[in-house]
Design brief:
single chain, 138 residues, mainly alpha, 6 helices, 73% helix
Length: 138
Amino acid sequence: MKRTVLEVGLAAVAGWCALVLPVILDPNRQRHRAAFLPFMRDAVEGIQVYSLGRLFGVGLLLGLIGRAPILMLGLASIATFPLWSAIDLVMRSDAHNLLPIEWFFYLVYGFIATAGVSVGRVALKYWHGLGNAKPEKP
């Protein structure tokens, strides 16, 4: 149980780092207004294909090192985004007028990370299977 909680927390932090840190560190980013953590909105508005590639990579690493359920790790890696949008919505009600569509995209991002976790688990099983292979008798 403790390991699962740790892995879910690690997934949330790693997913956040994969999507938000590059935006924060970019001095030329487009800055958006938000009531709560404007850099999160910058990250949401600035998601690119390579951002999703980083998210897949995070999922892959989580699949290789984690034991928690695949779906749990994948969705935890994007959990900070719907949490941010809910808090921002409460703090400023005129934002997020397309909330269901926004959260649908977060779900899609979570499934991208889940695909990465799945590939990591399959690779791990394959790798362990190679070590257990019995040599053929002549």
